[in-house]
Design a protein that fits this description.
By secondary structure, this protein is of the alpha+beta class. The chain is 34% helix and 22% strand. It contains twelve helices and 15 strands. The mean pLDDT is 93.
Length: 357
């Protein structure tokens, strides 16, 4: 895998810049929770609100018409898998072992308990750089440090992972693989949506300073309700390492990434490419879902240099609570009604159980 941003830059240029792909216009959003509940009720399922004083997250129980299937719903996550499925996916090192058992490609790395810092430091000395250091039990970017190169970087990244992960978390050190980050939503044996998650960027025109290009990019986001609410976060340390400052004038066509994290909260783009990704990569995502016992609906994170070449892909994570809204409200490309896909899947399961009785 490439150690630079060449593959991502090529993808952005070919997928967004050259076709002049603009932000989707989005005036408002609708609750996936209400959408899912209403659709189940239309199909004759019973939905019950579950009181939970320990959590602010809305919870429901959803029961098929014949009572053969009982689903749990936490926020917009619909599932019937056992607790051990959650525990495997929450502990990233266990997820990777499950994937490895099925001979699926994963980044090189290892996990260490909080008391094994000296061993981890020795491991860090041997693993090819740069690396990612993160707690094994946290989601999103909590406790994650990317691009760790030096022993000084290691020390601060280790402490950050421990602080965010807590005393019950191990620390994962793994190869930092750059490329195009895909979130693949798998329901049963079907890939229903794929978005490329791209950290915010601007394109040089050969005349304007970077600060001006950033303001223009922020204005462009205003047509998309969710993107407008989550403005671009500029990591000037990251930008400076790429050779730019706020006064720099990028050359015409130069793509300047503004931070290293492809998170919507940081201003990332979510581009639907469901119809463009090759079949073998989609099959890899389905097999990753199958590798986790009990999992039926999963968000598979894949890094790939070429969306048409499965040999360039590695699997980063498997999520039991995939964000539906990044597919429902993609910033670019075709929005996908994945909330309804989930309902259709479980309803088909209930009809199948009736036929086999």
């Amino acid at each position: 895998m490439s150690g630079d941003y060449s593959s991502l830059t090529k993808f952005v240029r070919e997928t967004i810049v050259e076709p002049r792909l603009e932000f989707n216009h989005l005036k408002t959003t609708k609750s996936a929770i209400n959408s899912i509940i209403n659709e189940f009720q239309k199909l004759g399922w019973t939905t019950e609100h579950v009181e939970n004083t320990k959590s602010k997250v809305p919870k429901h129980r959803i029961i098929s018409k014949d009572g053969s299937i009982i689903l749990s719903m936490s926020s917009a996550k619909v599932f019937r898998h056992p607790m051990y499925t959650e525990q495997i996916c929450q502990r990233k090192h266990l997820t990777k072992r499950m994937l490895a058992f099925e001979k699926l490609p994963i980044p090189a790395g290892s996990d260490f308990s909080p008391t094994e810092k000296n061993i981890a430091r020795a491991f860090f000395g041997k693993i090819p750089k740069p690396v990612v250091i993160k707690p094994t039990n946290s989601g999103g970017s909590h406790g994650v440090t990317v691009g760790v190169l030096t022993i000084e970087d290691f020390e601060s990244a280790w402490n950050f992972a421990i602080d965010e992960g807590g005393s019950n978390s191990s620390v994962l050190i793994e190869e930092f693989v750059r490329g195009i980050e895909l979130r693949v939503l798998v329901i049963g044996d079907q890939v229903v949506s794929i978005v490329a998650r791209i950290q915010p960027f601007v394109v040089g025109d050969g005349k304007s300073e970077l600060s001006f290009l950033i303001k223009e990019a922020e204005n462009a986001r205003k047509v998309h309700y969710r993107a407008m609410q989550l403005p671009v976060v500029i990591d000037w340390n990251f930008v400076s390492k790429r050779g730019y400052s706020s006064e720099s004038v990028p050359k015409e066509g130069d793509i300047v990434f503004l931070n290293p994290l492809s998170l919507l909260a940081n201003g990332a783009f979510y581009v639907d490419i469901t119809d463009s990704v090759c079949g073998p990569i989609k099959s890899m995502a389905v097999n990753a879902r199958k590798a986790i016992p009990g999992l039926e609906v999963g968000g598979i994170d894949i890094l790939v240099e070429d969306i048409n070449d499965v040999t360039t892909a590695v699997i980063l994570e498997v999520n039991t609570a995939p964000s539906l809204n990044i597919h429902r409200y993609a910033t670019h490309g075709q929005p996908r009604a994945v909330d309804l896909d989930i309902v259709e899947y479980f309803h088909a399961q209930s009809l199948s159980s009736v036929l086999t009785k």
